[in-house]
Amino acid sequence: MRHGKKVNHLGRTDSHRKAMLANMATSLIKHKRITTTLAKAKALRTYVEPLITKSKNDTTHSRRTVFAYLKDKDAVTILFREISEKVATRPGGYTRIIKLENRLGDNAEMAFIELVDYNEVYGQTAKTEKKTTRRRGGAKKKASDVAIEATDEVKSEEATVIETESPAEEKKED
Prior knowledge:
- By secondary structure, this protein is mainly α.
- 53% of the residues lie in helices and 9% in strands.
- Strands 1-3-2 form a three-stranded antiparallel β-sheet, covered by helices on one side.
- The longest helix is centred in the last third of the chain and has 31 residues, at 143-173.
- The radius of gyration is 35 Å and the shape is elongated.
- The protein starts with 13 loop residues before the first helix and ends with a helix.
């Protein structure tokens, strides 16, 4: 019986699962966002968040503990230098999982997992432009506006007629 055993085995042996989660955690720390299946993203969240919490306390012991999980010196350095500074005031919840469309080949639920403080989409105030109201077919003009436009058109036509006649009159007078 498996009463009270909450770990998701992900269809892998223990050693394979630990190696896969260590590699995924390293990729997440280096790239700040990775795309994977939803089940793996949820398993990775429970794996990487305690490591980020441990990185807040920069001691030799905590570095060695995190290195025992990640097995990548560059990832440990990035975690303790960059990420721990950004999450210093955050009391947990360092990752965000956002669901994507299902994968085409096997219809698996996909998601991307990202570090919350390194997002490009959320938390930024977008500048909203003033919306102009648009109507289908345009607004109907008032009768007085139509009359004014009609008189303006007639005056402009008369002006062009007068201009074309005046040079002809000058030639006749010579």
